[in-house]
Amino acid sequence: MYSFEPSDEQKMLVDAIHRYAAGDLRAKAHDADEEAGFAPALIEKGWELGYLQASIPEDFGGFGERSVVTGALAAEELAWGDLAGAMTVLAPGLYATPILLVGSDQQKATLIPPVIEAEWLPYTAALLEPYFDFDANELRTTARLEGNDYIINGLKAYVPFAAEARGMIVYANLDGKTQGFIVTPNTPGLVVGDREKTMGINALPMYKVKLDNLKIPRENRLGGPDGHDFEPILAAMRVANASLAIGLSRAAFEYSRDYAKEREVFGVKVAQKQAIAFMLAEMATEIEAIRLLTWEAAWMLDNGKADAARQAYLAITGATDMAMMVTDRAVQILGGHGYIREFPVELWMRNGRGIATFTGLAIV
Fold first, then answer.
1. Does residue 254 form part of some domain?
2. Of 215-229, 258-272, 311-325, the least confident
3. Which residues, at least 6 apart from 68, have a Cβ–Cβ distance to it below 8 Å?
4. Residue 54 in domain
5. Looking at residue 40, which CATH number applies to its domain?
6. How many domains does the chain contain in total?
């Protein structure tokens, strides 16, 4: 059974990320949302904390080994600062981590080092599609083999940093299976559309992408000619999303709790109102329940347990509802102040509403 006590190394990482989340991400989240982006220096500071680098073996330019549990802790703490900022800092992992998980030896040796040995650079992945019945295991984007090339056609949505990406993994349906294909910039047939206009995470630049007879060399199939299993990638994405939802919800809960303890209405602290106290108790309970479910899924992935993918699915399913409930109630607890942009709860509510649709925007 997994331990509930983080290791000393994990504690050090979480402490460092929390300081960054509080002093940098949280402090700039409102302005970044209004201005539709973070200052590059601020993102570079988060990148230099080294979470992704520490999850990559030395053979590929890193200085550690992958731990999904550590990734879950890091993602939660980053999202406590700001969800869009967390996704921005973690974006290069969308490219490097799947290659580490299922890439061929040659792909790992040649493609991972440029991502992690330099400053933060825009790398990404294109999984989501603009359809109401989107299913990551039944993509409408298709790939077919013609000679020594794959031809890919389809539409993608919410692709972070697509307009400036140094590299991208495009996921497509090949003979009924979801497979990744490594795409280099300016490949003919890769058409980056307008920046998405969304309800939340406005500081994260995301784009529509059209794949119009995109031709990819056979060796650029993720995993090599025989491809790969998509399940561990999808499970790691779901754990990442659940962890981000927990961090976001923690932020909303703690802020609204502290507000309720300090704010007086008719001579009584808001937190002393029974209805508010019950709200706060349920918020805290749901956060802790989903956190434990997510940690267990992460531990199962780390230890190769058979039901890990199922557990990851349960974690994100629970986290989706939890994030919406907690952030909505945070707005209610602040009353009229909850609807004003100078208070952060309205931003957390807008961001939380998107958790259900953010699969593929982060991975641990």
1. yes
2. 258-272
3. 236, 239, 298, 299, 301, 302, 364
4. yes
5. 1.10.540.10
6. 3
Within-domain flag for 362: no
* Domain range for 319: 231-357
Give the span between the Cα atoms of 364 and 298, in whole angstroms.
Answer: 9
Alpha helix ranges (H) inside the chain: 8-20, 26-35, 40-47, 51-54, 68-81, 83-90, 93-102, 105-111, 113-116, 231-262, 274-302, 308-333, 345-353
Residue 1's pLDDT is 44
pLDDT tens sequence across 18-72: 999 999 999 999 999 999 999 999 999 999 999 999 999 999 999 989 999 999 9
Q: What is the pLDDT of residue 194?
A: 95
Question: What's the whole-number average pLDDT of the chain?
Answer: 95
Dihedral over Cα of 59, 64, 70, 76: its sign: negative
Query: Whose CA is closest to 149, among 100, 189, 112?
Result: 189
Where is the domain boundary, 116, 136, 168?
116
pLDDT of residue 270: 74
